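Interim report, section 4.2 (structural modelling).
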Amino acid sequence: MSKAILCACEDVTREEVRRAFALGHRDLESVKRYTGFGTGPCQGKACLGLVARELVGLGATPAEAAPFTVRPPTAPTPLAALASADPASLPPGPGVPPEPSPSAAPRPSLPLPARARVVVVGGGIMGLGLAWQLARRGEADVVVLERSYLNAGASGRNGGGVRAQWSTPTMIRLARRSLELCGRFASEMGINVWFRRGGYLFLAPDARQAARLERAAAVQARCGLRTRVVAPREARDIVPQLDASRFVAASWNPDDGVVFPWPFLWGYAARAAALGARVLTFTRVVGLEARGRRIAAVVTDRGRIAADVVVNACGAWSREVAALAGVALPNRPVRHEILVTEPLKPWLDPLVSVLGTGLYFSQSLRGEMVGGIGDPEEPEGLATGSTLRFLARFARALAAVAPVAAGLKVVRQWAGSYDVTPDNNPILGAAGYDNFLQLSGFVGHGFMMAPAVTELMADWMGGGKPDEIFERFTLARFAGGGAVREDFIIG
Amino acid sequence: MPRLADPRFAPDCEIRFDGRRVPARAGESVASALVAAGLVLVARSAKYHRPRGPFCLAGSCGSCQVRVDGLPNLPACATPCRDGLRVETQNTLGRAGWDLLAAIDRLAPHGIDHHHLVTWNRWANRVAVAASRRLAGLGRLGDRAPPPWPPAAEERFEALVAGAGPAGLGAALALARAGRRVLVAERGPRAGGRLRCRLDLPGDPPPSWIDEAAAAVRAAGGEVATGAAVLGLWRDGGSPLAGVAAQGAQPRLRLIRAPAVVVACGAHAEPPVFEGNDLPGIFGARGLLAALAEDGVLPGERVAVLGPEPEAEAAAARLRQAGAGAVRVPGPVRRARGRRRVAGLDLEGGARIACDAVAVAGRGLPAAELARQAGGSLEVDATGGFRLRTGPAGEAAPGVWAAGEAAGPCTAREAAEAGRRAGEAAARV
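Predicted structure of the assembly:
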């Protein structure tokens, strides 16, 4: 009984909060993610004040102890209740809460250096993975600039799915390599990412979608994957809660899996830093200084860093950042909403996804169901608010395929931005300037691609033989008409 | 003497807790019935399997989750009793009182660093991940698919007041007097908020004021809905849209569109911070006193009362008046003693207090979620206390006002007054 519990839902002790603070997780959003406090069924009602007071006592500033973003619903709400709202009467909108007005920010993690050989803009999984890959190849003079805390962007907001079931050999190859790296991440990087190969089960609601599954499965078979197209009855053996009358076929790959996204960033950042790279949080890029055919320096809200190479790894913000140098990217940010339910004992092994609606759901290692659904009416924009429309659409789609899951109670909804390109494929390599490298445009699947892509990118930046992706996924392909559209985007 | 002998509080039905028969009053919370039966250990915690029981007794904190009639993770303190209700503990290997997995708590006195648990070898890590998955989660998936809820239709009111405590009723009264048709949505089973505790502090509005306010709302064409939690204040369609879960024989979702919203949800009870602060038998004083006033529930024979004046002394006086021993805790607490239920408090300086229950009075966290969803911001002061940033009448965001403890600590009288100001401002929309 020697523990003092600050968050009773998730059993977070005072000692754990103190340890997180000592490790550099000083702001409440970071402490929430590192300790898990405030993520349980009560959503911080009992613990938010206790943790804030503890942080203030440890020396946190008021900006660091400011409460984490409030997320609907205010109480655990059965999906069956939300399914009773008609999404057709709820037009798409920016959602809640509104973007906060800029106020005092938490303290940055490190002082700003005057120069660095490589400056990576964006401290998501792409930027941090690249920093580590460069550092382990001996290029340790790398600075990563993150405008907020680690995991504030799409890398900290996604559902954690990692699958090899893609429709082109290139994407299948990258995803397989990522799956392999995920399996080694904990032992190589020294931090758990809770990688679990529960498989991916794609459901086809009609013959047209079934044909799409068949085509993709054939490509996957040629690439050596264990994907099989199965009948609804067999899909029910894998997930007994499914209503087999709601789909005509399914494709099943037992080697796909899910991870817990946040520790990837902490792991990459810590290992890169141990090798000499510098990760600067709460540092916003406000300008790019060009000189001739090169970017000479990156200008931040804290000052300027001269750079030999600048990498744009800002996900949905990549277009804005490239525009600072006058480079026009075709990327479009599109919000994608997601939710998490109360924690339950294991009941769902694979990630299940329904082609057509873009519904997906899986069970995290903490027992929560995590899920989302695409919205064809979602407009372009950087909004990350939450809507009742999404909850209603998700609840209806889920109740249709897995009726018992409609009893699950939603504890939190949030949103992130997909970084969408015209052909659903990434944009890699130099654009506009010889030393301005793009690492963006992963259309909601950057997280799962990052371990493999950052490895290839570091090889290429180090002068190695370029992988075909750096020839195929250039910005110039859109001008030349060489773009081939990826068909297996979910959501 | 766990329940007052007063015939008004006589049990009239029976629920089952892990197979055991427990007398109950129909409509009171499952937590009330269990506490009255001396059963305070009703759950095990998520990670360390520590003994847990009801704390807030108000549906906020999540420490009393049980399986009810085959449905997992329901708060015992917000689930009403009816005859034959089947209540079970969750997340145990054994029973709630004898959970073998409680060994985790003893084997890891400094907690488990889950980020770095078994990362030294890839294959060992796989085993650890598989084991962790089996240990994670609280309840098991529900036994059955839920029946569909009736279609939710959008309803229009001139104002929505979330919460029917002194602030919410003050706002509703002002709105009703201005002729506004208002919906007052209260998540608890009764109106009154902290007035339900019957502390009767100087300046508190009298109990009759609750009924007067409700009557005024109805006279103006409005409605006071209890068992109606406001789940969120979304903006789908461009203006504030509240989702309200209306409990009852046929639960339904109400979608409320109102140009003016007053957030008067009070404050969430906060646990005290010391070792063993999560032991069963430690309660928020307000939830406890409401259960005492309405269902005659006494938490124990000797209750240690923590917290600031005047609420703590008034709480102790109410408990004594009901026949329990109540002692004020004179100084800071170092730790709570007890294994399955609190047995005493060790104070800084060495003094000990023997008790079988603890009541924690005092301020809580502003329940400002709805105001924050609308764009309001909670600010932290130098001591780590929170207060919502508001204008003079409680404006927290366009079309949204906050009043009472939802904005920051205040007395019931101040809350009613703040509610009136917010209501008058909202009536001008």
